[in-house]
Design goal:
By secondary structure, the protein is α/β, with parallel strands linked by helices. Helices cover about 30% and strands about 15% of the residues. Strand 1 (about 20) and strand 2 form a beta hairpin. The protein is globular.
Length: about 260
């Protein structure tokens, strides 16, 4: 259960017909079983003679189309941003997405292995991505994090890039700079959704490490990602400047439904 699935707060699950199993808890119907490890529970299920059901058709991911940046001063959109990031991903990339459109838009990325995508379950976890990328790269130095974070989330914890620099890590940090809390804007807008406009690309000057890029067009994005691919000494930060009301197709679906409840 998270706060963005099963109808948000409208989920009505019958406990009498539910099995809830996580690394912290096991409940079957109305009974809670303490100190049962998740892997032991799964081993127990595998050892049972459960009735096998016919296997349905598995959805196959659509091949990633080739991306070609449009020439000139073509303003970058969220949709085109994620299309280009798809082409940037490699076998050595771990995507770390913060909440908001960073997470919704990332749902359309083509991830090659099951451990290469990290994201928070709860909207209250805003500010997850930059600190999480530190843990992800320290845990597996072979992977380079691609950090997707909104400007609101970045202003909460983005200065943890100081820790990134301290330990010689080299994530590529993409700040979706739409000048505020974009998810809320589409449900109910007001000045409370605005954030102070930082010069994100100049943060490397403050920290004495890393490289910063200002991205406004598709050609800017192409150049910045190509440079980031070559620059592996430290982190790269892309200040991707988007229109305040631009949004991914996934956020468009979610926000239009939630707005009707307000």
């Amino acid at each position: 259960m998270t706060d963005i699935n099963l109808g948000v707060y409208t989920a009505r699950l019958d406990p009498a017909r539910s099995i809830y199993a996580t690394s912290e808890k096991l409940s079957i119907r109305y009974h809670t079983y303490e100190e049962v490890r998740f892997k032991d529970f799964m081993r127990g299920l595998l050892g049972l003679r459960l009735r096998r059901r016919a296997r349905g058709a598995f959805p196959r991911p659509v091949p990633v189309p080739a991306f070609k940046a449009r020439k000139g001063a073509v303003r970058l959109t969220v949709k085109r941003l994620f299309a280009r990031l798809n082409a940037f991903l490699s076998e050595n990339t771990v995507v770390v997405a913060d909440v908001g459109d960073s997470l919704f838009g990332a749902a359309d990325l083509f991830i090659r292995h099951r451990t290469e995508f990290l994201g928070p379950a709860y909207y209250a976890s805003m500010g997850f991505a930059v600190p999480a990328s530190v843990g992800a790269q320290l845990a597996n130095p072979k992977l380079r994090p691609l950090v997707l974070v909104g400007d609101g989330a970045f202003q909460m914890t983005g200065v943890e890039l100081a820790t990134t620099a301290r330990y010689g890590l080299n994530p590529v940090v993409v700040v979706l700079n739409n000048r505020g809390y974009g998810t809320e804007r589409h449900m109910q807008d007001g000045p409370y959704n605005d954030v102070w406009p930082w010069h994100y690309s100049r943060l490397p000057d403050l920290l004495g490490a890393g490289r910063g890029f200002i991205v406004q067009t598709e050609e800017d994005l192409d150049r910045a990602l190509e440079e980031a691919q070559r620059w592996t000494k430290s982190f790269c930060l892309l200040d991707v400047q988007l229109e305040p009301l631009d949004r991914s197709p996934a956020l468009d679906r979610l926000a239009s439904r939630l707005a009707k409840r307000l």
